[in-house]
């Protein structure tokens, strides 16, 4: 039997997820390193502490003001995108390696940029049947990976040009109804 306390706790859990709470990604490794070069010299990017987060890009309310049940669809305008951002000035070479290392650490897809058209997002959200007076919200969301990054060059004499910074790496864009 479901008690009021259980329903309230379930509602709070759903609210936390729909509000875009950060979730730890089950890592395939505690850190991942992407290196290019030879045994004697090259450039590496290491990612650690990867956390998956959902960002709400835009939202549209659906409200059934009629006295009849209605089937409604989400409708978005325009194309949205998310790009890789970093908290330090780094080379294009380093930026290009970050998604590969984050993907290896998190075990989910990552890219330097992701985008979705309005029709892609509407299709992803689907339709919903609302009773009279009911309302829901359609949200277009981006899943991003927030990570700590260490980039460095190496040679036979050791490590040099080491930088530590954070990065936000886009993973996917989708839609949901809450």
TrEMBL record:
Gene3D superfamilies: Proaerolysin, chain A, domain 3. The keyword Signal applies. It comes from Nakamurella flavida. This is DUF4333 domain-containing protein. The keyword Signal applies. Keywords: Signal. Residues 1-24 form the signal peptide.
């Amino acid at each position: 039997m479901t008690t009021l306390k259980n329903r309230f706790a379930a509602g709070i859990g759903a609210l936390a997820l729909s509000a875009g709470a950060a979730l730890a990604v089950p890592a395939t490794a505690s850190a991942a390193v992407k290196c290019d070069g030879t045994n004697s010299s090259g450039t590496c990017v290491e990612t650690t502490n990867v956390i998956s987060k959902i960002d709400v890009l835009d939202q549209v309310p659906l409200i059934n003001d009629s006295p009849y049940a209605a089937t409604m669809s989400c409708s978005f305008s325009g194309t949205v995108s998310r790009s890789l951002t970093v908290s330090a000035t780094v080379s294009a070479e380093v930026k290009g390696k970050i998604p590969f290392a984050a993907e290896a650490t998190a075990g989910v897809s990552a890219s330097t940029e992701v985008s979705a058209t309005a029709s892609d997002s509407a299709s992803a959200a689907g339709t919903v049947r609302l009773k009279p007076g009911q309302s829901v919200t359609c949200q277009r969301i981006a899943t991003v990976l927030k990570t700590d990054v260490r980039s460095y060059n190496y040679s036979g004499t050791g490590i040099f040009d080491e930088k530590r910074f954070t990065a936000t790496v886009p993973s996917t864009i989708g839609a949901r109804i809450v």
